[in-house]
Here is the input.
Amino acid sequence: MPPKKPHNASPVKGGKKKKDSDTDASAHHHSHVAAAAIADDEDFYREPIKRTVRPENQLQLPEEKLDEDITRVLTANDPNVPNNITKYNYKEKAYKQDPEGPMDHLAFHLQLDGCSLHIESEEAKAQKEMEANKKAELEQLKKNAAQEAFEAGEEDIEAEAPKTGKNQFNYSERAAQTFNNVLRSRGVATEPPPVVQFSATVTQWDIVDTYMLDQKKSQQAEDEAKNADKRKGHSAAASNDEGQKKTKENDMVHSQKMSNALKILERMVNQNAEDEVFQDFKYWEDQSDEFRNNEGSLLPLWRFSTEKTNRKHVTALCWNPAYPDLFAVGYGSYDFMRQGSGMVYCFSLKNTSHPEYLFSTESGVMCLDFHPHYQSLLAVGCYDGTVMVFDVRQKINRAIYSSSIRTGKHTDPVWQVHWQVEDMAKELNFFSISSDGHVASWVMSKNELKMEPVMQLKLVSSTRDDPEEVNLSGLAGGCCFDFNKYNEHLFIVGTEEGKIHKCSKAYSGQYLETYQGHHMAVYTLRWNPFHPRVFISCSADWTVKVWDHNLPNPVLSFDLGCAVGDVAWAPYSSTVFAAVTSDGKVHVFDLSKNKHEPLCEQKVVKKSKLTHVCFNEKAYIVIVGDDRGGVTSLKLSPNLRKEDYERNDEGEVVLPADPVKFQVDKMDKLLSAASN
Here is the structure.
């Protein structure tokens, strides 16, 4: 039998096997690590996978609850502050809950200790004392250094602290010296002028004789000149006048041609400076009118005012009938306690910076009117009852006609004047109305202005049934009047009592009709420019009324909420009119489109009251005056001037054959609708 091998007979072989197994295990481990590293590198470039993990104890809610918005209100209260602190109150001998204080919820995010000291505190006083001691020690050191330098013989050395420059580390002072320019002096010697000595002795009688001789010669020259004038007579005067005319004609700077040229240049400069406003005046159309029905607007263009008229009221406005760019403005005062002088300015739209003509009166101007045929004649009524006539062609500040006590005169303010155009009249005349209760006619004779009474405005009782009020004494104060251009003898008068009287020139003793619609003073009356029966009135009782003179009551009435200063019909339509109120607003109505409300209600001035309004006859322009001496020009938008003409089958506008009849028919249709 072969011998048995002990267990440890081959340690080397067994160790080798173990070593091989360990090597295999390590290699296998390294392969797994390498594979894991490769997998991690690949996962690094992959997008993360989102996986929603829901806890097991989470509440399950339906979709409606999940979509519901929960509003949370954020407050400034600190949730960590206790709100149930209870303390014992010894006064009430009971436990009371301590309320929260205003500083409990205050959180300090940053807190720094400052170094500022109060000027009256002890620390501040100690610091000041320390600074004073340091300063005293420095002064003492300076004095000691100066004393030591003086004892050493250095008198000019001052013991001061070393001065440092901008950079105390590497700063060094540098200086340079340049050569001075050589000074040279030059002189010129001239020959002195020849000098002659003169001396004379004058006695007192020599002086007297010389004076008497000179006076005798001057007297002889005056006598010869007088004799020459007597011999020449009128021929000498004519020659002098011709000489003066020649000098004026030769003086080009002060000639009339130069004045006209300068006026044209001034207008050109003004139009260039305000080119945008002139472009709006000519071409502006409000595009928003296409998108709004029965509504319009007013575009402010120019404001005419001067320093002399800032404290006066605009009491009258009137366009010139021949020149559509020229209008006259009267300045006065409606305040009884603030009366003064008056002025008349004539402005032009071609030169908005300065008036073309200006005239002054002793009393305030209350009204004015241009003559329809002789456009240079301007009738003016004043506060003291005087009426005057100016000729704007004569550039002198003097009226060509003026009323006086000798020829006749009103005793109260003249509120309105109106030129009368009659073919049979040989002389020009105009009418006036005053608070003294008289309507007068003024005839312009050769040398004076003659007054002819037309009517006395008698008081009329408000109730006809009461016999005590029928026989009233005195006269009614006239405020306004207007003449019917279709019936020359017919005119209407407005009084301070609020009554409107229809009168005739043929019957001066009584009224044809009395209309009772206003209960305060009637400020303005205007006949319709197209319809012969319709007129309009405005009053201080805030109303504007449209009348048919054949009916006793108003056809239409409008309450504007403020005192109405003036009203005017538009010259292009029988149903359009404008009114101004004391709150600074302009109201524009078109009765054919809206019989109840205005198409435009626009505030023009902020702190002023509007007093008068006037339409331009040619352009779609309206001017308004206020109580601060200003006149504002406004342009009407398309909706305020649009006419509703008929259209054919193709949609084209058909213009009426007779425009006047078209306007009359439009007003008749309105009257029939209002009466029904």
Q: What stands out?
A: Helices lie at 11-44, 63-67, 122-151, 204-232, 234-250, 256-273, 275-283, 659-675. The CA atoms of residues 177 and 183 lie 18 Å apart. The radius of gyration is 53 Å. Residues 11-44 form the longest helix (34 residues).
